[in-house]
Amino acid sequence: MYPSTNPPPPGSHGYTPGGYPPPQGYPSPPQGGYPPPQGGYPPPQGGYPPSQGGYPPPQGYPPPVQGYYGPPPGGYHPPGGYGPGPGGPITNQPGVQPGGMDGGWMSIPQGGINCPPGLEYLTMIDQLLIKQKVEILEALTGFETKNKFTIKNSLGQKVYLAVEDSDCCTRNICGPIRPFEMKILDNYKNEVIHLHRPLACDSCCFPCCLQSMEVYAPPGNLLGIVQQEWSLCYPSFSVQNAAGETVLRIEGPICTMSICGDVEFKILSRDGETQVGKISKQWSGVMREMFTDADYFGVTFPLDLDVKMKAVMLGACFLIDVMFFEKTNNN
Asked: What is the pLDDT of residue 259?
């Protein structure tokens, strides 16, 4: 007997007794839909183990700074290598470039054990150039003013300034034989060398009253004396130390007139046999020579000469200048 082809009656659940049951299909979704998944897959117990043999994280990095960061309190510090501030040692003259021909000051070298303060500049010098400043009033009127000098080394760097200290009447009445004091200053205007020239005659007819120049460094401490020696033919001087012992000698030419050339005074050894240096009055040009008494001088001496004697030779240069090349009323 074949199953009936008529549709099943209601409530029969879709199948006919004695026949094949129809496919069940998918049940209807519950009221309100399916609930969402609960939390996804649970993580493994104890977390994921770290990878074996991987690259270790970099060590020593600081934690990242959160938010905006400004300059640290007190501002940024300068990078390393900057020189000392105002409180540090000063080895160059202030306000100028060290060295060169632009009028800069000489750097301060390391002084020796027995070097008087202020003479450190002379330890590394074997030549000095002395230039007298032109005074306009003196050039136009002949009225004698205080002499001023700039002292430089062979590179053109300033070493000292020299300023005459004398009164007006003495300069204009006594002329070249006048007594005077001279202050030699460093770049800080400190007096490092003091020169004293007493009043004396410059004629060979009075051998008992000859010219001299006393050199002090620091002021009040005698270093030496430049003493004129009596001579009929040519200028002669002895350079003495503080004990009065002759260390060097100076001899000049018979004619000390500067005519289109230099005038040289030889610096000799104590016995007068060996020349070790010279003091030269350099030709400064026709106009300067005719209308002023502002002169150029050069002093050379051994590099290893005692620094005290180098200062005394500087005093000898000023004595030779005032004795032979200082003019009265620019005549």
From this structure: 74
**Pairing mode, strands 236-241 and 158-165:** unpaired
Structural domain total, the chain: 1
* Residue pLDDT, tens place only, 52-67: 555 555 565 555 555 5
| Phi-psi domain of 121 (left: phi exceeds 0; alpha: psi -120 through 50; beta: other) | alpha
Of 239, 271, 233, the residue nearest 252 (C-alpha): 233
Burial of 263 (0-12, 13-18, 19+ CB in 10 A): buried
What letter does residue 93 receive in the DSSP assignment?
-
Does residue 124 fall inside a structural domain? Answer: yes
Residue 264 covered by a domain = no
- Kindly provide the residue ranges of all beta strands, DSSP E only, lying in 69-201, ordered along the sequence: 127-132, 148-152, 158-165, 180-185, 191-197
Does some domain include residue 271? no
H-only helix segments in the chain: 136-141, 168-174, 286-291, 307-324
* Cis omega (within 30 of 0) for bond into 94: no
Q: What is the CATH number of the domain that holds 146?
A: 2.40.160
Residue 186: give the domain boundaries. 120-230+286-324
- Report the share of the chain in percent with pLDDT over 90: 40
Return the number of other C-beta atoms located less than 10 Å from residue 153's C-beta: 18
Let me know if residue 253 belongs to a domain: no
